[in-house]
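Reply to dn_fold:

You asked what the input looked like. This is it:
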Amino acid sequence: MIGRELIVGVTGGIAAYKTAALVSRLVQAGAGVSVVMTASATRLVGPKTFEALTGRPVALETFAERGHPHIELADRGELLCVAPATANLLAKAAWGLADDLLSTTLLSFAGPVVLAPAMNTKMWAKAAVQRNVRQLREDGMVLIEPEEGYLSCGARGPGRMAAPDKIFQVIAEILASGPTAS
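and this is what came back:
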């Protein structure tokens, strides 16, 4: 993974704290990682956490005085991973909606996309969410199924974001199979 450029999107699911471990592992493996956070995500994990792990500023603002942050991020990255991917993000991605920096970056990104959903069991089971998941897979995105277990709301069942090690492994496999792999 040495020298690879990755984008990690963080949405407002409680599993955002697990994304710090994923980002740390990617950086330790030699990847350059740019983190994009939604406003909701910053209420769960501070951007300074990701800045400390990556040595880079966290991208938060859709608009800049100069340039186009979503295009610049999309052009820089080889792979984009969203972890956690909330039901809201899945819906936006499935329908091509773009109203914040992460969703505009996702819509602008031409490389492989990995999504690690995380949400309440009832939300995950909803027909609308499953329809969006099918659409995203049909569109060529890689979805890492949520795990079963205890959820922050107290429920048990599928909905926990996959373990950071599993997400790391999927990213490593995609990069290894790509045309620019070392």
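The two ends are 8 Å apart (CA to CA).
Hope that clears it up.
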